[in-house]
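Predict the holo structure. Ligand: zinc ion.
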Amino acid sequence: MLRRRHLLCCGGLAGVGLFSALAAHEAGLAGPLLNPCPPIQPGSVPGDSTGTALDGVPPDWLAGIWDGLDPAQLWDVHAHLLGTGDSGSGCWVDPRLTQWWHPVEHLRKRMILNGACVPDRSEAVDQAYVARLTQLADAFPAGARWLLFAFDEALDTDGTRRPDWTTFHVPDAYARQVAARRPDRFGWVASIHPARPDALARLDQAVQGGALAVKWLPSAMNIDLPSPRWTPFYDRLAAARLPLIVHVGEEHAVPGAGQQGLGNPLHLRAPLRHGVRVIAAHCASLGTALDLDQTRPRQVPAFDLFARLMDEADWRSHLLGDVSAVFQFNRSPQVWHTLLQRQDWHPRLLHGSDYPLPGVMPLVRLPGLVKAGLLDPAEVPPLEALRRQHPLLFDLALKRRVRSAGSRLSPAVFATARHFT
Ligand SMILES: [Zn+2]
């Protein structure tokens, strides 16, 4: 059955009382639920010669985040580009997200735009989104970059466009154009539905245009990974050595076609068998999927299936996972502890932020991480202060600070550029 729920962006703004709490705060728009969006000081990060202090963030604590890291290797491999098309970008958002008589959808859109510090009722959403992201990026040391995602439409199996399944659309050309303006900070990731009649031509164009990867969200776009129809597409990806970033596990944030079964992590074996390097977005850390390896398949945590693939010898050189969104409140402590403790996986885990979600305040709940034993309570005040001033730096700092049984995410997780050269 096709279900429709509406929300921008991926990563997991699931309901779970979040939006009723938000509704209660709507009148005053107060409290810690909203990103205060202060102006960003250039060079607010140690390592920049013009370094400016951040309120409530001890400089030496902040400097410690960079211990053992090379900023030139720090590519954020999961950052969303969003827009309404008001600049002529070709971006598109499901109109239901902007209609007050769809209150939940409307509120979700507002939260996402607040996370990106795009003013409510802005008439220049495209421009404001990129301007804020650029400011945040420019506060990082030179060399750090963000991979900006295009996002293709949902298509029927016969290749027909399905606007009724499409939550939002960001054309390849726009992602390429935004990245080209600031190649020192941005690269771009193409998104091409393989059922498009001209999918291979689009892929060639993306390769020639310098795309660093291709991104799919099978459950929202309606892509059945094991289908033999995609063999030419997989072969072309493998030949170009272009990674395929695939969202597997449950997806609440981009409902799209609503086909959660298409997000089964075991389906990743199809592109892997064709020699494609695959990056499992969020390490499939949300929801359940059918264990299709059993004679009587039952639902198991999607993350367990990702873990199974990570441990299969055949994919050791080709299967990777990104750690974007994994420390949000809706992931299980078992996911947190496993990712931190599996040091043998760390060379294959990639830093990603799922921007703009680090700016959506309710999604990361530090007391929950303290309770799970991941975070020293002394880390909470500087992290909270940092989050209000610079969500991207907060996301990095949090991933550097969490630990389980003495094990942290190793520096290899933050040396991501090497996977794209
Ligand atoms: Zn995402």
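The chain has a mean pLDDT of 89. The first helix runs from residue 18 to 26.
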